[in-house]
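Form P-L/3: holo structure prediction, ligand pyridoxal-5'-phosphate.
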Amino acid sequence: MKRYRVLEIDSLDVLRKALTRLDGEFRALPRSTSRGISSKKIEKILLEAAKLLGDNYPYFHPLYAGQMLKPPHPVARMAYALAMWINPNNHALDGGRASSAMEKEAVAEIAGMFGWKAHLGHLTGGGTIANLEALWVAGQIQPQGTIVASEQAHYTHSRISNVLRLKFESVACDSKGRIDLDALEKRLAQGGVTTVVATMGTTATGSVDPLHEILTLKNRYGFRVHADAAYGGYFTLVDNLDSETRKAFNALSNVASLVIDPHKHGLQPYGCGCVIFQDPAVGKFYKHDSPYTYFSSGDLHLGEISLECSRPGAAAVGLWATQRLLPLSRNGEFSKLLRSSRRASLTLHEKLKKDGRFLPAFRPELDIVVWAVRASRVSESSQLAHALFAEAGKNQLHLALAELPTNFFQLHEAGMVVDQNTITCLRSVLMKPEHREWLDRIYEILSRSADRIVKRVGV
Ligand SMILES: *Cc1c(COP(=O)(O)O)cnc(C)c1O
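OUTPUT (holo model):
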């Protein structure tokens, strides 16, 4: 009898076929003897590693509905593994001819997703280093200026600015986790702001800064706009965003630079971020002695437009293969997967709203749901959130906790005493396409877990 499996393993057969084809591509070479392979020893070590890796939350399973963790698509995993037998380095063409071409193709498709015609960009180790490059270029253009981002922007923006020795300030958020436009304008009027970072999907709640409004302010005050779409970028493809969110995403065609993480919603293994600039001329900052024309030619050398040197060509192969299978088109299969995540988040939000035990925050803009446990005071609610997180985990439902400003919740209406500035609440990032069909099961476990802790605590 075939053993019940939770992990997808069948794709290994396809990988073997592809490896055989790759082997054939090098058949002109004389045979080399493989050294250092003692399969008994390796087997022992690998089995030990497999046992140790069991000490993880089941990120690949729909009942993992906590942090931003989405399993790579099998095609990405296999393409990445296939490339490992060559281990190309996309720093230079000498290190990875084929995978560099694949990277350029994949990045051009990402730029095309935002309606960009010209672009200069490449893959990075992740969103952090991608944002670092974007802010580095902003600082090269205007070294004296101040960079501003919202209080809910990714925490690394302030740290990156510090590394780059650029001035950084954060601006308050509204009650939906988006940059507060009045606060932003007030700060702009004081002068000195040269770059505004718009977050297209905050890491905590998936809130989307009103980029279209920020661009209107740009006309009045003049500054560079960088969009941190590390998390949310791909949502530009879906047709079920709220109208304000849609407007913000449509404005992405008018930013100077943009960061998106294929290893977040793009079905890639970790080690795959992406930074793109709309003006290819920024290439001059990477290599001083290169004329502008060099960078606007179709023949970019990835190693010369990147702050990182060695980079995995395998990441490009994984991304290229995934975009082959699931093109970045509106209403294509890939966009439907994201659409389903968004639907799941709206359904969960509605269920929570109707449930007297919970108090959800604002309507989700993407696919992240946050909710508090109702209690007489915020401190008590925070303790209950911790208890519920642990109890749900015992029942195989893995959620996340978040520490959020109290104004994200209608606490007064809920009759809760606000005895602290932040509230610990539950957070669920419904990134997997399967989450939608698993929602009833997820809610059933959540509900049962909530009953248990309420009984235990006696509220
Ligand atoms: C995840 C994230 C980052 C950081 O990206 P890494 O890939 O984790 O380095 C930056 N900004 C936002 C909005 C993110 O969600």
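COMMENT: The chain has 14 helices and eleven strands.
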